[in-house]
Amino acid sequence: MAAIDVKAIDWNDVWVEAQWQNIDSGHGGECWHSWADKEAAKEFFHHSLQSPAAKERIADICSMIQSGARALDIGAGPGNIAIPVAKIAARVTAVEPAPGMAAVLREQIALENLDNIQLIAKKWDDVDKEELQPPYDLTFASFSMGMIDLKASIEKMMELTLGTIAIYWHTGIQSWDQESMELWPLLHGKPYYPVPESNIIFNLLYSMGIYPDVKTLRHTRRTMYDSFEAALETYAGRYDAKGPEQLRVLKDYLEKKLYHVGEKRMLVTTNASMKISWPMAQAAVTRIS
Questions:
Q1: Positive or negative, the Cα torsion across 47, 121, 197, 187?
Q2: Domain residues of the chain, as ranges?
Q3: b/e 159-188 (16+ beta carbons within 10 angstroms → b)
């Protein structure tokens, strides 16, 4: 059997196709469109303060930044990472396109009385290099790789960074994608396609002559609902289920998935992700200084 030459595959094309398949399925729209609502973004922020996986990731990112350094947070969300990083770094640029997320981030900047965070309320694809404040000692994207053109997005990061680039992204089919793959055809009669995974990022970097460090991260989440009816209501909203038949499908699905905890119901999910990072010292690119 002939060996597969991974460098002969256009991994950017693989990513682009997978992204468009994901965007065109399900609700449609890029992932940041889901965070227009400020209250939903605020709920996400408060959850991140309690999540062991999020706490571990925040500590990891903070350990990579030194006093006096500059950091670039791509897809900053409500600021759950940008805020603690800003308390160490001299300057943080936070790029966040979702209106709800950006609104919460502005609130947190004011509450913390921080004057060293620059917020750019745009998609990374649409950010002009002139709007930024390079060079950056650390550039990171924490579960925010929703860009269509992966290669162009990474090349832009590399041009602006003197130190380290770190990307955290999904590995394997995530629990919510698995749910959508099972439920969407039953509810809406069409397939759902999951987001592209970390292996594509790694293979693209490899084809570019970048050989990153890779760390697999695993985390289990327990989501508690006050009642079965509360869980059903949440899922009905998530999957646009309205009619009696759609609600029956959801009810049957949840009865098999949820654990009884007294009068409450609990959903247990386990997901894997990867931290893909590399020092820019190993990459030969033209940088902005």
A1: positive
A2: 6-173+193-217+273-282
A3: bbbbbbbbbbbbbbbbbebebbbebbeebb
- pLDDT tens column, 92-108: 999 999 999 999 999 99
The pTM of this model reads 0.90
Q: Fill in the DSSP letter of residue 24.
A: H
Neighbouring residues of 172: CB distance < 8 A, sequence distance ≥ 6: 197, 271, 272
Architecture of domain 6-173+193-217+273-282: 3-Layer(aba) Sandwich (3.40)
Q: At what angle do helices 11-24 and 150-160 cross, to 10 degrees?
A: 120
* pLDDT tens digit sequence for 123-132: 999 999 999 9
Contact 14, 207 (CB under 8 A): no
Per-residue pLDDT tens digits for 146-160:
999 999 999 999 999
Task: Give CA–CA dist 101/182, Å, rounded.
Answer: 29
Return left, alpha or beta for 143; rule: phi > 0 is left, psi -120 to 50 is alpha, else beta: left
Distance between alpha carbon 95 and the CA centroid of its chain, in Å?
13
